[in-house]
Write a structure and sequence with these properties.
283 residues, alpha/beta, Rossmann fold, Alpha-Beta Plaits, four-stranded parallel sheet, 11 helices, 45% helix, 12% strand
Length: 283
């Protein structure tokens, strides 16, 4: 790493420490992903037992993500609340319009803010980073309206920098693939149901258990469109694995199983509303 880049990273990390110190106590909306794990780890170092992690739990969040979040906080002795969230009760969410994420995040952060008030903690933070403006993120507006802080954005930390600093801190999740809620696998305009979410979660579990790392199963009715890193396509097409995955996914209720030749692409379903800005991953 060039000295100038290293100085910039350290400067931003020090700015984050200073900002968290100013808060005194904090509730972190903790998903278990790279960004929220880094934010929570730094907050715990700075604030000690004056930090509380709150994780939303519902059918839209993969069970394995919840388990990893619990493991992370348990290993560090961080107080952690699993909060049943209510987005599936919201017509604005289950109808799956392009503002779905806004309604979901606003609902969750309102619940997290209630926990913070009950505990006498004046601040709630979420882990949006300085790259999040590159894709369609209506949840960011919800966070602003809910009064949630975004310390990583405040100090200008982007995803790559967060991964680098996480690795230097010894966080095992530093290279964890990005993850979005399971509702993001369902095209806008198609209703979100428990059945669809369970099918997607189980399908992705089969692929992850096969050793694939970055995985999305987009649910187009009864068609499963699989996105993996380009470097994993050859592995997925090996006869034994290909046949097993097709049989597994058809057993879950899909009629057809397709591999997206572009590979994994962040927010690919946002193309339908003209906001998708990422390019296929070349890894």
């Amino acid at each position: 790493m060039k000295p100038s880049i290293e100085r910039d990273l350290k400067g931003r990390q020090e700015a984050l420490v200073t900002r968290l110190s100013e808060l005194g106590s904090l509730v972190v909306a903790f998903s278990g992903g790279v960004d929220s794990s880094f934010l929570l780890a730094v907050a715990a170092q700075v604030l000690g037992d004056r930090v509380l992690a709150v994780t939303a739990v519902s059918v839209i969040h993969p069970e394995r993500e919840k388990q990893e979040a619990v493991r992370f906080t348990s290993e560090r002795g961080i107080e952690h609340i699993l909060l049943p969230s209510r987005e599936m009760e919201l017509p604005e969410f289950v109808s799956n319009n392009p503002d779905r994420c806004y309604h979901c995040k606003r609902s969750i952060l309102d619940q997290v803010s209630t926990v913070a008030r009950e505990r006498g903690i004046p601040h709630v933070a979420h882990a949006a980073n300085a790259d999040d403006h590159l894709d369609y993120r209506p949840g960011g507006r919800a966070a602003q309206e809910a009064g949630a802080l975004a310390p990583l954005i405040e100090v200008g930390l982007k995803k790559a920098a967060i991964r680098t600093l996480s690795r230097e801190m010894g966080l095992s999740c530093w290279d964890k693939p990005s993850m979005a809620c399971l509702a993001s696998r369902i095209p806008y305009g198609e209703s979100i149901t428990v059945e669809k979410l369970k099918m997607v979660e189980e399908a992705e579990n089969r692929l992850l258990d096969a050793g694939l790392k970055q995985v999305r199963v987009r649910c187009h009715g009864r068609v499963a469109r699989i996105e993996v890193n380009a470097s994993d396509m050859e592995k997925l097409m090996l006869p034994d694995l290909r046949i097993r995955i097709v049989e597994d996914l058809r057993g879950l209720g899909f009629l057809h199983v397709a591999l997206d030749m572009e590979g994994y692409t962040t927010g690919s379903l946002n193309r339908a509303i003209g906001t998708q800005s990422e390019v296929p991953q070349k890894r």
